[in-house]
Amino acid sequence: MNPHIAPVDLAKSYRLINHGPTVLVSARHGGVDNVMAAAWCCALDFAPPKLTVVLDKATATRALVEHSGMFVIQVPTAAQLQLTHQVGTLSLSTDAGKLATSGVQLFGMDGFDLPFVDGCAGWLACRLIPEPHNQQAYDLFIGEIVGAWSDTRVFSGGHWHFEDADPALRSLHYVAGGQFYAIGQALRVQESKE
Amino acid sequence: MNPHIAPVDLAKSYRLINHGPTVLVSARHGGVDNVMAAAWCCALDFAPPKLTVVLDKATATRALVEHSGMFVIQVPTAAQLQLTHQVGTLSLSTDAGKLATSGVQLFGMDGFDLPFVDGCAGWLACRLIPEPHNQQAYDLFIGEIVGAWSDTRVFSGGHWHFEDADPALRSLHYVAGGQFYAIGQALRVQESKE
C-alpha cells in the first residue's frame, strides 16, 4: 500500500469532498468489483458523517451497492484525469475489461471488504443507509462514512494542502464533454477583529 | 442589472454547479429576504434539471424556502470571498442587518419573485419539490431548476471559461475554518482515437 496513506478522523472526513471534487465510486459484490466516476456526490452531515451520491440505474456499480450495502467514495487526482474519464465512460456491462483498460489498480484496507482505487488523494468507506424512495425516484443514495483515509502529501491535519503539494495531486472538478478543472489557488478569509 | 447576464439553456443549467462550487442560497417570504452560504449543494438530474441542497434547521433561510417553496442557488466568485464567508457565518435571526453588513446587493429577474445576489457568476431559480422525510431527517431539500442565468464573461455556450476570464470571477470551493480554494487549471481529456 502507498506509504503516504493515513486514516482521517471521521469528524473531519467530510472535508475530503467539501470542496466539490468529482469522485470515483467503487463497490464489490459476488466476486465482482467495479468503479465509476460521479460528479454528483456531496456531503450531507457531520456526525455521524454522511454523504449523498447519484447512481444512475444504467450503471453496473449501482447494483453492486444495492446488493452489498457498502461502497467507497474516493477523490481522484489530476494525474488520474484519463482514468477518471474512462471509468466514467466505459461500462462493465458491455466491457468486462473496463478496469484494466482504464488503468485502475485496486487495493484493500484492513477490516473492509471493499475495492479501493490506488493513486487517489482520499478514500471514504461508506455504509448505505437504505432509502428506497430516494433511490428509485431520484437515483439518490445516502451513505454513512465509516472509514476515511487520505494521501498525507496533500491532505493532513484535517485540511487539504494543494498549494504546497505536487499539482498532480490536485482534485478534479468535472463540467461536461471532457472538460475538467483542477482545484486552484488557496484563498483565506480575513477574520474580523471584533 | 449587470449587462453581462444572459439566460442559460435549462438543459445545460446543471453545469453551473457540476464542478462543485460553494453556493449562496437566497429566498424571500412575507417581505423578508435572506441569503446564506452552502457548501453542500449538488446536481441531481438533467431533465428536468434538479439539485439538492442541505439547509440546517438553525438557518433563517430554510424557513423562507419552506414557506415560499422557491429559492435561488447562485455561484459566488473569488471577488465575493468575504461576502460568502459572512453570509455563511452571520444569521438573520440574531443580526437583522446581516445582508447590509455582508455587502449583499439584491436584484430581480422578470417573472420571478425571488432575491438574486448581485456579482455572482451564475444563478439557478428553483422550485422546491417537497420531500418532508428528507427535509426532516436529513435537512436535504430538492429543487427543480426553473430558470438559469450566467455572467457571460465566465460562462457562455454551456461552458465555464475560467481560463480566459478575470481570476476574480473564479468559483469558490470551501473546505472548513475559512479555508477556500478558487477553481483552477483547465484540464481536457484526450479523446480516444477508436
Automatic annotation (TrEMBL), chains A, B:
<protein>
    <submittedName>
        <fullName>Flavin reductase family protein</fullName>
    </submittedName>
</protein>
<dbReference type="InterPro" id="IPR012349">
    <property type="entry name" value="Split_barrel_FMN-bd"/>
</dbReference>
<keyword id="KW-0285">Flavoprotein</keyword>
<comment type="similarity">
    <text>Belongs to the flavoredoxin family.</text>
</comment>
<dbReference type="GO" id="GO:0016646">
    <property type="term" value="F:oxidoreductase activity, acting on the CH-NH group of donors, NAD or NADP as acceptor"/>
</dbReference>
<dbReference type="InterPro" id="IPR002563">
    <property type="entry name" value="Flavin_Rdtase-like_dom"/>
</dbReference>
<feature type="domain" description="Flavin reductase like">
    <location>
        <begin position="15"/>
        <end position="166"/>
    </location>
</feature>
<dbReference type="Pfam" id="PF01613">
    <property type="entry name" value="Flavin_Reduct"/>
</dbReference>
<dbReference type="GO" id="GO:0010181">
    <property type="term" value="F:FMN binding"/>
</dbReference>
<dbReference type="InterPro" id="IPR052174">
    <property type="entry name" value="Flavoredoxin"/>
</dbReference>
